[in-house]
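Entry 0007
Protein: 3-hydroxyisobutyrate dehydrogenase family protein
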Amino acid sequence: MKKNITVLGTGAMGSRLAAKLIEAGYSVSVYNRNKGRASAAVEIGATYYETPGEAVASADIVISMLTDDHAASGVWLNKETGAIWGMKPDAIAIESSTLSIACITNFSAIFAEQGIAFLDAPVVGSRPQAEAGALIFLLGGSHKALHEVTPVLNHLSSAVYHLGENGAGAMMKLAVNAYFGVQVAAFGEVIGWLQKSGIDKQQSTELLSQLPVISPALQGIAKLVADENYQPFFPLDLVKKDFSYMLKQAVQAGSQTPCVAVAQKSFQQAIEKGYGSDNIAGVARLWVD
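Output (structure tokens):
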């Protein structure tokens, strides 16, 4: 018998997770702070509930995909409507939002107090990968809980990496986003310099994309910059948020991260210029015409 699943947060990513789960034959309940944004999931068979607590009441697995610490804390921990208070004792909570380590640590402790299994499982990938069921899950938590949810995650992903105890998945996700962001900012600077030095933008992006110095992910960014396509798969506002979480944790760990700190300033400048809703490639607009 297939499990009942609740998806908390039906924005760009959560709605696509819900769709893949419905496609796989699961009974899916959803909650979103803005009810209108849950309509696409409801139209294909999801059941909408007015509060997180109501949405998770019959769930075997609860997957959260929310914007930030504030949103996730409100949905999980609100004293009157929070999802954690409505979950069954044998249910499993999966936090797939990109959150700070402090937030994940707090969640882990509270779920443990309630006797509910908790996994931090943020994802690598964006809307196209979510639609294709090809996300990569970076997971922290117990092997037992992972074993229980693996059949569900297999419908959503191309790979699941178990990295250790709670917090390990969240930390790796911040590392992935910070590393990628540094690459994108550096690429934008270089293309801008080449352009102002007389080398055509199309020519430079195409050439660099063929060289081994460019990662596969950055090849995609190069095409977006060349085409001036800044459709927000991973908006600058969220990139900057993730940089902030990573830098705060680095300070607490006593780790020096000067490249990440400088890159964050570039993303902040892009946001101040009004590019916050652009895709991550939009940071290149600081330097590229």
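Curator remark: The longest strand covers residues 157-164. The CA atoms of residues 14 and 65 lie 5 Å apart.
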